[in-house]
Design a protein that fits this description.
Length: 187
């Protein structure tokens, strides 16, 4: 399973690097508001046992996130994302994996440079997501969709590369702290 995650991350990172180098000057004007990123993180997963004999043995896991965004205005961006949050280990045996796909809006409450995404930034976010769990254990998913909230911050260099940290709260049983690299296109 870890080998598959590494392969997906390697492929996504290579695609991001290749794509960022293939934009021409004309395309840069059209795509200057687009960005894409990839991140690794730590998750806290607490499946609802719902009176079963199972208990959560290990709530912590590692995962990754891929996202694409568009700067709608100076203060608002829109992002689509896919997150693989890893799995919670259950006792006496088994695990429950978590994957989420969705869209969120980011509101920049602090920007060092108001005209361009450069320097330090802080943001809040909210959106809608769809959670998928996979397990061999008997379970019932009450809601597939959910509201997600988050906050984050980062630093964008003159090259358009952003180093960013986010805390995403997907559902009452899953949280994700992500450290990522993003590339703003057309810079």
């Amino acid at each position: 399973m870890l080998k598959n995650k590494k392969s997906i991350l390697s492929l996504a990172l290579a695609s991001l690097v290749c794509l960022s180098g293939t934009l021409t000057a004309d395309e840069a004007v059209d795509r200057s508001k687009w960005y894409a990123g990839i991140g690794l993180g730590l998750s806290r997963l607490e499946p609802d046992r719902n009176g079963s004999i199972y208990s959560v043995d290990d709530k912590s896991s590692t995962g990754f996130k891929l996202y694409v965004g568009y700067d709608w205005s100076e203060k608002i961006s829109i992002e689509g994302y896919f997150s693989d949050l890893g799995e919670a280990k259950m006792a006496p045996f088994g695990e429950v994996s978590y994957k989420d796909i969705g869209a969120s809006g980011l509101y920049y409450f602090y920007r060092e440079n108001e005209e361009r995404h450069r320097g330090w930034e802080g943001f809040l976010k909210a959106g809608l997501g769809w959670m998928k769990n996979d397990t061999q254990l008997p379970y019932e998913r009450v809601h597939n969709s959910h509201v997600m909230f988050g906050l984050g911050g980062g630093y964008t260099f003159d090259s358009g590369i952003t180093v960013r940290a986010d805390l995403d709260l997907y559902d009452e049983d899953s949280q994700f702290l992500i450290f990522s690299l993003a590339k703003r296109f057309g810079e």
